[in-house]
Each structure stands twice: as C-alpha cells, then as structure tokens.
Amino acid sequence: MSVIVDYLIIIWCFLMIGLMTIGGFFMFRKFLKKLPKKDGKSTMDWEEYYVNKTKDMWNEKEKDLLEELVAPVPELFRDVARHKIASKIGEVALMKNQQVINQETLIEGYIIATPKRDHKFLRKKLAQKNIDTAPYEQFFLQSKEDYQNNWETNYRK
Question: So where does this one cross the membrane (predicted)?
Fold first, then answer.
C-alpha cells in the first residue's frame, strides 16, 4: 500500500511542476508584452490604443464576421485572440484613414494578426461565404513573423 502512495506522490509532484511551468510560461509571455518598446509603449498598450481608437468604426456585420473567424479559438483564449486581431484590424483601418471598418480591412487585418497555420481556416471560411481570396494573396504569402518586423513596410509593397 505504501508503494502505491509513494508513486502517487511522485506523480502528483511531476504534475504540479508541469502545471506550474505551463502557467509560468504564459505569465512570462504576458510580462514580455507589457515591457515598453523604443517608443515608450508596450505591445499591449498599442493594442489597447487601436481597439479604443476604432471601437466606434465597427458595424454589426463586421463584428459578426470577426466572431465567426475567432470561433475556432478555444474559449479560454478567445477574448485575447479577439482583442489582438481587432487591434490589428483597427491599425490597418487607421493607416488607410478609413471612417468605418469594412470587410476588406477586416480580412487584411485578420491575416496580418494571425499565424500562417490559421490561414487555412480563414480560406475555408471565406470560401463558405463566397468571398474571393485573390485580392488577399499577397498577405497570405507572408507569415506572421514577417509582419512582426516592419509589417507596415511589407503591407505597403
């Protein structure tokens, strides 16, 4: 009986160490996003700025499309993903000096904000909605990593 208890304690220790490591990893990532950049604002500060600056520019149709696009994200992470994607869409809209966020801007911003592995789902969803992906091919060809460094320059090409 004591051998079983010993094994359970060992398993419990490894489980706790694993869970604490995973939690620490996510906390550290959030900490890195809060560190100020050269301009004095952090990545999270800029995300918040773009979301607040453009929150009145969204129509219900575009809000619904964004909800459909973030639907496959696990519920635990969906709010974070929605916020990050909406901020990039807002940034693109402000760069274009738009008054309202339209479907084209939403799709461009979504592509820019998401990693390449999520583009397959986006293509499938756009095909279901009968939206042509040809105008967005230049964005699909670049991975998210390409956008993180000088994405504005790549966007204007």
Answer: 6-28
pTM value > 0.85? no
- pLDDT tens per residue, range 94-153: 999 999 999 889 888 888 888 888 888 888 888 888 888 888 888 887 655 555 555 566
Q: Within 13 Å of residue 38, how many CA atoms lie on the same side as its CB?
A: 0
- Dig out the tokens for 145 from the structure: 């990593």
Tokens of 53: 């600056």
At residue 35, the 3 state secondary structure works out as coil
Please report, as a single letter, which amino acid is at residue 5. V
Tokens 């940034």 locate to 91
126 near 107, Cβ under 8 Å?
A: yes
Q: Are the CB atoms for 123 and 110 separated by under 8 Å?
A: no
